[in-house]
Fold Zinc finger, RING-type.
Amino acid sequence: MDSEYVLDKCSEPCLQKLNCNDICRGTCGKCKQGRLHIPCSEICNKINPCNHICKFPCKERCPPCNNKCLYSCIHSKCTNICGKPCVPCKEKCSWKCRHLCCTVKCGEICNRMPCYEPCDLILECKHNCIGFCGEPCPPLCRICQKDEVTTIIFGNEDEPGARFVYLEDCGHSVESEALEQWMNQNDKEIVLKQCPLCRTPILKTLRFMNRVKVILKDIAEIKEKQYKEQFVISSNKIEMLQSLKSLSDNFKSIFIGDLRKFQHIKDLWDMFCKPLNKQFQISQKTHKNNRNRTVHIPIKEIESLDFVINLFKSTSKYKQIINEDIDDGPMKQTIINHFVWLLSVTFTYAKELSNQQKFDINMEMARGGRIVSLYKILSSVEYKMKVQMNIDSTNKNEVKDLIDNMIDMLISCKVYNLNRDKEIENRMELIEQKIDGIAFISDEERKMIHKAMSVNFPGGIRAQGHWCKCQNGHIYCITECGGPMEESVCPECKVKIGGRNHRYVSGVTVASEMDGARSLAWSSANNIGDYIFDD
């Protein structure tokens, strides 16, 4: 029985910790022994800045909140979904009392302070109000409801001169000094303040409206940033659809395998692409002369579409190398099967690939790239001649052992990662030293491998400038947030590498040969690009 088939049937829980910090709920077989995890299904449950709980599967990248917006003022209520920026109210602010008056627009920061004079209104029971001047009167009387008013919750409720604030959002009345302290807690956190008794967001209480407006302004900036990111992703979708159509039209010549054996791959591709191609064709006919023709595709699908297109193009490049430079035989078919397997997984989940899946697929692409580079050399006439004729038996045995070890590492069912790839690279360098004139990998192949491995950054975006060199020229990669956050030592020469707070240690330079970057991520030279605007 095929060992791969047996591994696929393993029903033991995976239980590996994913990049999103959730525990994988798949099985060992379904997750390919941790090499390609199924999508994370854990509900996020994080509280968004707007105070809604995110119910999207997996917290790796929450989409903009799609609940109804909570914000309203005395003039109107926001009708957008929560994830869209609110339109500031242009009406005149209504906050005034006989001592103070705000003169700016409702949506702007008020130009008056809260009034601390006692309210002079008389309640229906003929007793004095316990609130402040110009604010809604708390529906409690210090005399008629003495027990309720003076019940100690925060400490000052039983003071004779205690003043209370009525929270219009939930109807609770809270002692003013305690509420001030409550509102000042976690002042640096971008999240709506809540009633200390019931956790209802405080949005309508004029006394704290300036704090609410500052928080809403910060939340609006977050929304704006999210929508800007979505616009950047969406702006290229017509080009993506054109590329998708071209790949569909030329599928047979681009596909790395034999379609007679792998028709199911084409079926998966068609399930994903045909609806999109149909939308695109309708859009072209409807808006033939309109450059602004649009096709509605959810943001998550656009991100996946970009990944699928790039992966398919990469496997096509490997197809050419495999067909031209690798000897026929069982291993050639094994290499092809590896890439077909990756395409199968990618096309199966093509509509909504998670960042974890993209990461896993790219690491397996890097593994495949190393296998191709190894067998390309083993198939070359130059290698065969040098091994047979130009090196002594001791070196020949050492080279054979190194190659056997590399093959075992590359075809292992263990997870492929940066450390394993570095081990492979080190062995390739050792063989190059023992066989003068042999180069295991071309610059183009190196970039293909490292492009695949550069997906483990925020949002799954392949950024440049994360491949670095220590002061002695040894290459390493910064993962996590993409900028240096901790110091370490070079595994080759033990000099300091990395950095702190996005500042690199002295001597670190960009490894341009890896991804074509001209400057380090988070360096001044890289960040200056944020201030260059195209016409």
User: Anything to note?
Assistant: Strands lie at 164-166, 173-175, 467-469, 475-477, 487-489, 496-500, 503-504, 509-510. The chain has three domains: 74-235, 237-460, 463-535. The two ends are 62 Å apart (CA to CA).
